[in-house]
Amino acid sequence: MREFLEETDGGIISYEVGRVKPDPEIYRLLMEKYDLNPQECVFIDDMPQNIEMAKSLGINGIVYKNYEQVQDELHSLLIN
Questions:
Q1: Who is most buried in 1, 12, 15, 53, counting CB within 10 A?
Q2: What is the pLDDT of residue 80?
Q3: Beta bridge partners of 62
Q4: Fold type of domain 2-76
Q5: For the chain, which residues make up each domain, given as ranges?
Q6: Does the pLDDT value for residue 12 go beyond 70?
Q7: φ, ψ of residue 60 in degrees (nearest 5)
Q8: Are 70 and 43 in contact (CB under 8 A)?
Q9: What are the pLDDT digits (tens) for 39-58?
Q10: Percent of the chain residues topping a pLDDT of 70
């Protein structure tokens, strides 16, 4: 998982914003903070309910099982 964190450009800390996943507001705050287009994002998490919420907001999602599986799914989304 450490390899993925090195590829990120930022994040939202739950206690700082007073929200936790899968509260839709935490996803909206992230999109707003970094001026992101949800369709251009991929949310990776090991909790399926968090991925389902992201998807309901238009964000691509991958349920983390292992590094190789996530890497394969990212490639299938044409993300390198």
A1: 53
A2: 56
A3: 44
A4: Rossmann fold (3.40.50)
A5: 2-76
A6: yes
A7: -65, 145
A8: no
A9: 999 999 999 999 999 999 99
A10: 91
